[in-house]
Structure formats: structure tokens, C-alpha cells
Design brief:
seven-stranded mixed beta sheet, two-stranded antiparallel ribbon, 22% strand, mainly beta, globular, Virus Head Decoration Protein, Chain: A
Length: 139
């Protein structure tokens, strides 16, 4: 599966100047993304804006991440770009992640409902590091 590369700022970023990049990035444990919305083994696609957290597997690299659990106190990050399992184009060193900033929660892939909002558990896990806004287009 090939994907269109986009070098633009993700739509969910509300204020570019507020965004904090997490170190040099993270690696993803694609086997942890079992929800059907991510696809099947070998072809999983994790969209930009997905909330992730480091896995607690013994012996795993420090920043090997899976989907966020919604557990308060756990580090929560937001994936900067789409990630594709077994991609020949993605960097083997990992993916960029945000550790703070102002984002439109309605444009994050983990938001649900009408209007789209994050679960209270995910909001708690994101803590005070992210400011969540509602996106509106009133053209």
C-alpha cells in the first residue's frame, strides 16, 4: 500500500508555535494496535493525531509505543504523521510525536460522538500538557 506523503502541518494542530516535539521520536509496536480501525496484521495504518503511550513490556525500548490506555499519570503523546506497518518508506528509527501544545480535539482520530470529543479518560491522560479546542468551520 503506498501512501501520499504530506509535509504540511497536521490539521489537528491549532497553534504551530505551541507544539512541543517529544525528543527524537518514538517507535511503534504495531501488534498493540488491535482495533479493527487500524487494519489487519501486516497492513496496519495508524493515522496522524492518534494518542499513544509507551508500552510496559519488559525489555522493550524506552519509547516503544502502543495506543493510549486512558490511564491517568501515564505519559501520553500525539503521533505527528501517519504510520504504516512494514512500510518501506517510513524511517526505521521511528515516528515524530508531540508532547504538548494546542490541538483541535474534534480533528483527532480518537475523538468520537457528535460533536466529536475525546473520552474523559484520554483527556485526563493528556493532562495539562495539551490544550484541547473545538474546530469550527463557519464559512
Amino acid at each position: 500500500m503506498s501512501k501520499l506523503r504530506s509535509f504540511a502541518l497536521p490539521a489537528f494542530v491549532a497553534d504551530r508555535a505551541s507544539m512541543e516535539t517529544f525528543g527524537t521520536g518514538v517507535q511503534l509496536d504495531f501488534t498493540k494496535f488491535t482495533d479493527a480501525k487500524y487494519g489487519t496484521a501486516g497492513t496496519r495504518r495508524i493515522p496522524a493525531g492518534t494518542i499513544i503511550e509507551p508500552v510496559t513490556t519488559v525489555g522493550a525500548p524506552a519509547y516503544l509505543c502502543g495506543p493510549a490506555s486512558g490511564t491517568a499519570g501515564n505519559l501520553a503523546l500525539i503521533l505527528k504523521q501517519d504510520a504504516e506497518e512494514d512500510s518501506k518508506a517510513d524511517a526505521v528509527t521511528g515516528y515524530g510525536a508531540y508532547s504538548g501544545g494546542v490541538v483541535y480535539q474534534t480533528l483527532l482520530p480518537d475523538a468520537t460522538g457528535n460533536p466529536r470529543v475525546l473520552s474523559s479518560a484520554l483527556k485526563t491522560q493528556l493532562g495539562t500538557f495539551f490544550r484541547l479546542m473545538t474546530y469550527e468551520d463557519r464559512r
